[in-house]
């Protein structure tokens, strides 16, 4: 299959995070990519949560795009907040911290990820290898590549 693309908008609300997660799972099963659905849903959950927390009040929506190309799934979450570009927390969160792990998780399971500015906001993109030997979640929800 040469490639597929799907884009969906969600309101910047907490209840949109599980809706976006379910949307990814259903779309990837339809694309016969069920083996990567759980990993992609986790990535979307983390990125959508960041959009809801950091872009709320700036825009009304975030956009989720899925692109399958040449053995890679690209997941993109775009929002209207350009002032806060995501980055991995330094120092890493401690055992009692309740935030700051999302991009650490994304970094642990992604082939690559990054951020690009848009005219109004930013897009966080993540590449997941569809041809890797094991696309399972790392033990404990995180881990090294």
UniProtKB/TrEMBL annotation:
<keyword id="KW-0067">ATP-binding</keyword>
<dbReference type="Pfam" id="PF13581">
    <property type="entry name" value="HATPase_c_2"/>
</dbReference>
<keyword id="KW-0723">Serine/threonine-protein kinase</keyword>
<keyword id="KW-0418">Kinase</keyword>
<protein>
    <submittedName>
        <fullName>ATP-binding protein</fullName>
    </submittedName>
</protein>
<dbReference type="GO" id="GO:0005524">
    <property type="term" value="F:ATP binding"/>
</dbReference>
<dbReference type="InterPro" id="IPR036890">
    <property type="entry name" value="HATPase_C_sf"/>
</dbReference>
<dbReference type="InterPro" id="IPR050267">
    <property type="entry name" value="Anti-sigma-factor_SerPK"/>
</dbReference>
<keyword id="KW-0808">Transferase</keyword>
<dbReference type="InterPro" id="IPR003594">
    <property type="entry name" value="HATPase_dom"/>
</dbReference>
<feature type="domain" description="Histidine kinase/HSP90-like ATPase">
    <location>
        <begin position="11"/>
        <end position="127"/>
    </location>
</feature>
<keyword id="KW-0547">Nucleotide-binding</keyword>
<dbReference type="GO" id="GO:0004674">
    <property type="term" value="F:protein serine/threonine kinase activity"/>
</dbReference>
């Amino acid at each position: 299959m040469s490639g597929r693309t799907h884009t969906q908008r969600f309101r910047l609300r907490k209840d949109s995070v599980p809706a976006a997660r379910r949307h990814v799972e259903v779309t990837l099963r339809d694309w016969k990519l069920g083996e990567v659905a759980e990993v992609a849903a986790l990535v979307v959950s983390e990125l959508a949560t960041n959009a809801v927390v950091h872009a709320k009040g700036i825009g009304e929506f975030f956009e989720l795009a899925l692109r399958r190309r040449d053995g890679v799934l690209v997941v993109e979450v775009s929002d209207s907040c350009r002032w806060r570009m995501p980055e991995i927390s330094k120092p890493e969160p401690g055992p009692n911290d309740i935030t700051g792990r999302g991009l650490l998780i994304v970094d642990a399971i992604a082939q690559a990820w990054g951020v690009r500015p848009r005219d109004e906001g930013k897009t966080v993109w993540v590449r997941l290898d569809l041809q890797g030997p094991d696309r399972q979640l790392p033990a404990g929800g995180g881990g090294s590549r």
